[in-house]
Amino acid sequence: MRLYIERPIYLTTRLKSDHAALTHGNLTSSHPNVHKTPPSHPSHHHDPFNHHRSTTNKLPQSIMAKLTLLTLLGLLTPTALSLRPSPGCGKTPALVTSSSTTTPLRITSNNKQREFFVRLPQNYNSSTPHRLIFTLHALGGTAQQVIAGQGGYLPYYGLPPLANSSTIPTVFVIPNGLNNGWQNSNGEDVTFLRSVLSTVESDLCVDQDLRFSTGFSYGAAMSYSLACSLGREIRAVAALSGNPQISGCAAGSEPVAYYGQHGTTDNVLPLAQARQMRDRFLKNNGCAAQAEPPVPAAGSQGKVKTVYTGCLPDKPVTFVVFDGGHVPTPRETGESETFAHKETWEFFSQFT
């Protein structure tokens, strides 16, 4: 259940799921239909009512009574109080329109004009906080290619058809890197993407607890860099065949939910580098140490998926190794489409 109370504040409640008490197990399999138990959402504040007392005291007594009852019943957890709707909630968008997928929006960042595109869901509602997903292009690519599904990409990495079935609508943000890449010199791309977040969230209604980023190759490296720099300000990233050095990792000590995938025969960005990226967040997220999982047999066109155990309950780490090279849309034997978008969406959509 997601409850929004407008004026004086927005309030989001989340009911505990039946599997919140289940153990988040370790699953390693080459089978595409591996079942995973979504993590529960932990309590970040000992007393949500004391923590937000100055705000919640503004609520009518009837609402406060209901929230107190929910807490006593065990249905409302401390993290269920989400007071992070963006400034654009309740406003008519003045910047983003339905044409923002074809006409770029421009801002100045580090004295350089930068551009990005935005895809709104059908029937955008400014009273509903939306999930926000960055989709970042690879080296030599463009935001326009990501939008159109050209140059080896699926449109928006294949996520919109899956997002359409979600009860939480999704806004996609598609920025252009400098010189068709994400070198992130002196952190300038992180600064740019922070500015994009601020611009979009001032215009649209976004749940600031549901920010995500994904990308392939250089786009994966930049998503990883965002996880390092934004820390708890980003919910999760999905790095598809990335590298930890090319976009850098400033800070990088906070836990962030992390999905990675990489090919065994990637001669552009070797698998060992993807493991370094994964290992940073295995450590940050408090995951249990374990032996390196096996890789799929050469020529099998299979994949091995590992969901790590012992991680902080809302900071899972999943890593997929597939038999293949440096490609954004790997397929398993006998499959007509890639698994990449399905795995990415399964990982992102567990956070509500």
TrEMBL record:
It is found in: Secreted. InterPro entries: AB_hydrolase_fold, FaeB/C/D. Residues 23-56 are annotated as: Disordered. It comes from the Eukaryota. The keyword Secreted applies. Its main location: secreted. Its EC number is 3.1.1.73. Keywords: Carbohydrate metabolism, Hydrolase, Polysaccharide degradation, Secreted, Signal, Xylan degradation. It is an enzyme of class 3 (hydrolase). It catalyses: feruloyl-polysaccharide + H2O = ferulate + polysaccharide. PANTHER family: FERULOYL ESTERASE D, PTHR38050. This is feruloyl esterase. It comes from Podospora pseudopauciseta.
